[in-house]
Amino acid sequence: MGDEEGRNRQNAGARPAPTPPAASGSRPLPRPSLGRATIIIGFVSLLADVSSEMIYPLLPIFITQVLAAPASALGLIEGISVGTASIISGISGWISDRIGRRKPVAFAGYALTAVSRPMLAFAGSWPVVLGARFSERFGKGIRGAPRDALLAESAPAEDRGRAFGFERAMDSTGAVIGPLLGLLFVGAVGLGIRSVFLISCIPATVAALLLLSVPETEGKVKGARSLKFSLAGTTSTYRRVLLIAGVFGLANSANAFLILRAEQLGLATRWTILAYALYNAVSAMMSMPAGAASDRFGRRNLLIIGYTIYAGVYVGFGVANRGWLVWPLFAIYGLFPALTDGVAKALAVDTAGTAGRATVIGIYSSVIGVTQIAASIIGGMLWDKVGAQATFYFGAAMSALSVALLFALLPARTRREAGNPDRAGDS
Question: What pTM does this model have?
Fold first, then answer.
């Protein structure tokens, strides 16, 4: 509804002091509160991440110690699982735009994640873990783009970054609660890792059911048989965004390597989990302010800061020689997803042109997915063949290249005019 209202105001001509429509109220100064759909989606993301992050810090330990697999196997598992989620997101986004529905597609993804999670509990070898993680992340991929499109359509264009920032903050809050619950179950209660994997099904199931209460954005999604999974209708700025995302994706190997590096530097498992929770806590606190800042100061500028932080932290993990250094590195690293995840998706929607929103988010996610598979496989091979430092130096170099491309290829600010391919994305 926000995009239509914006176009109506433009078509009405320039006015010295435009009066908001009656449905919008007459309070020009206070920013509107987040809508019901945005808030529900935020809590869905929180519960889903509680489930996911409850087990994530335990996976590198489970794979490399319990199952005695090498780092290259960890890289393969995490690369394929994370990459699959992003690639499938592209396809599910196209399906969502084609049928004109968001919620059924997103619900199918959340439900698949919930039912596939127990496979991890019964894994006896790393290939079984690969299959389980593939299934779980396949569900994440199905739900991603339709949920993000639902989120984009629940907020006016001028507050889109704020809405994505809220969702990112709730997601990161779940990523704080999840590791702490995992630590509680393993450390205080004395449960085994496999039992924690089973318990993680509960919040995943609740997230799927809660999504059913999100109102479908009627009138905003127009299913069309002519929609194609292609770049047709997108702006030149969007295509440059894809190029930069692909380059950065080669830097963005799985966070499991950070956890493995913390263990390598001598940090005990419980402290590694807490350090990882600190990373997510920083991300949770900063995501919504970062999204709102991107509405005011431009998406590109926030991405430049985020990618620069990533490069610096990866250099830090490479040169670190003491376990205590993991704490400040993880804390600083928490700024990276806050400044980039929601902001990049909002930028993709801003520069979509006439293409479907879920489709452009999905294509963006697919590019990220393909390159993240390569990044994690390369990271694992560098770890085994050269050394742990090589994994992080490679990531830092590719991130620095992405910063240079952001300066060179994108304007400082983009106009949020989806539906006008000739103007969207101009500075």
Answer: 0.71
Place of tokens 């376990």: 323
Q: What tens-digit pLDDT sequence spans the chain (427 residues)?
A: 444 444 444 444 444 444 444 444 444 445 556 778 888 999 999 999 999 989 888 888 889 888 888 888 988 998 888 777 777 776 777 787 777 788 888 898 899 888 888 888 888 889 999 988 888 888 888 888 788 888 888 777 777 778 888 887 888 789 889 999 998 998 788 888 889 999 999 999 999 999 988 877 654 555 444 455 567 677 888 889 999 999 999 999 989 899 999 989 998 888 998 998 899 889 888 877 887 888 788 888 999 999 999 999 999 999 999 999 999 999 999 999 889 987 887 888 888 776 666 677 778 878 888 898 899 999 999 999 999 999 999 999 999 999 999 999 988 766 544 344 334 443 3
CA distances from 322 to 325, 328, 329 (A): 6, 12, 12
Residues 146 and 158: their CA atoms lie apart, in Å, by 21
Please give the tally of structural domains in the chain.
1
CA–CA distances in Å: residue 53 to residues 132, 180, 290? 15, 9, 22
Q: Is residue 288 part of a domain?
A: yes
User: Does 4 map to a domain?
Assistant: no
* Secondary structure in 3-state letters for 93-153: HHHHHHHCCCHHHHHHHHHHHHHHHHHHHHCCCHHHHHHHHHHHHHHHHHHHHHHHHHHHC
Residues 6+ apart with CB under 8 A from 16: none
Within a domain: 222: no
Residue with tokens 């780092």: 71
Residue 113 lies in a domain: yes
CA gap 46, 102 in Å, rounded: 19
Full domain range(s) for residue 301: 35-216+228-409
Residue 301: give its domain's CATH number: 1.20.1250.20
Rounded to whole angstroms, the Cα distance separating 149 from 349 reads 9
Which amino acid is located at 354 in the chain? T
Distance of alpha carbon 329 from alpha carbon 315, whole angstroms: 10
